[in-house]
Amino acid sequence: MTLKSSLDLHHLLDNMQTFVSILDTAGILIFANQSPTIQTGLIESDIIGKAFWESSWFQYDSNLINLIKQDCEACALGSSVKREIQISVNNELVWIDFSMQASIDNTGEITQLVVEARQITQQKQTAALLNDSERKSHAWLENSPICTKIVDLNFNLRYMSSAGVKSLKIKDINTFYNKPYPFEFYPSNFKQKMLVCLNQVINTKTITKLEAQVIDLNSNEIWFHSTLVPVLNKMNDLDYIIIVSIDISEQKNAEQELKQLNKELEARVIQRTKQLELANQQLKYISETDPLTKIANRRVYERKLLENIALAKRAQQYLSLLMIDIDHFKEYNDHYGHDVGDIALSKVAKTIESSLSREVDFTARFGGEEFVVLLPSTNEQGAFEVAETIRNNVQDLLIKHEFSSCLNILTISIGIASLKAEEINGDLLLKKADTALYQAKNGGRNLCHKASKSL
């Protein structure tokens, strides 16, 4: 079953046997599931928004408070912590397997601390009882829901509790005694992992843990969290090994559902991100593009002008500006209609753009029938040559204009302004180009005119 809502997610977390909480990097608790293992008797207001070490679980021991605080500080610097500790739950001390580690985002920054805790009181009690009295412990083990096994130093099975026999669907456990463990019907990868753990216990005489999947005799999958405990004799030599296994299949199923939910959420986030990126691209295009001619608008020109002025001053280069106006365009619109006029405007715009040979050259619709062209690192003569190319290319379109005073086709006039790096000023450059355009029109139109040096 796939979880479909945050409510389902919280329900899932709250029914996990593992306590999960999230702290900020200052150690303040910002989330905790309602795991019955740890939080019995507490409500959210008791713990959320408070320093983790101030929780009632640790208040019985000032040394433990300081230890948890030091753990938070260490993990906030990138360390990880894992240990077994005792905490107070409903005025009772319980053992937990406690771990804390830093959560790191894509940039490598530590953003949160993740705490996990699983109660291991029963495992501790089992080990203590076995050392204290085999007779007393046997009755407890046989009635415990925990699967407990004893293996000798040759890894032969000497004992398995009723919970294990039931979980693995074993009809007669006696047929497995004094035979190698792990069982032959277990998956090969589990057997390899378990043998590594058994050898580690023998070599180090320390408790080792393993979380892995097995199958029962009916081929059903079971997840076990196993703790391997070395039992030492009075000479401090290893006598045998106890394996305490807890069925965590429900927890693993919940984790798989959570993983699937996270995968679905991640896919949705990726899809939404792509949609937002596309929307931003479209918005950027709309905000920077003239809707009629499909070239840049005046807003982009003003930004490009400032950028090119800064570049010209740094590189000590010329910057040239062409101011372009379609000759007698009002008469063209009046006689041919605005729809035809819009088509002519678009053709002129595309011709201006295609006449520019360098990627750094830039054109935009300035307004109405006026266009501008920015030519970085271009002196007056170079700008004049570009202007003439544009003027001739527009003329070659042979757009009919019977009401023009210069030719029977659509033409343009161009004003040219060029300034050295030390002279460059955006307003001055535009004023010089605009004045040159005015002079081109007064000179008979269909002309390119250079700005006067004296302006």
Automatic annotation (TrEMBL):
Gene3D superfamilies: 3.30.70.270, PAS domain. Its cofactor is Mg(2+). This is diguanylate cyclase. Residues 79-132, 208-260 form the PAC domain. It is an enzyme of class 2 (transferase). GO terms for biological process: cell adhesion involved in single-species biofilm formation; negative regulation of bacterial-type flagellum-dependent cell motility; regulation of DNA-templated transcription. Its EC number is 2.7.7.65. It comes from Pseudoalteromonas denitrificans DSM 6059. InterPro entries: Diguanylate_Cyclase, GGDEF_dom, Nucleotide_cyclase, PAC, PAS, PAS-assoc_C, PAS-like_dom_sf, PAS_4. Pfam families: GGDEF, PAS, PAS_4.
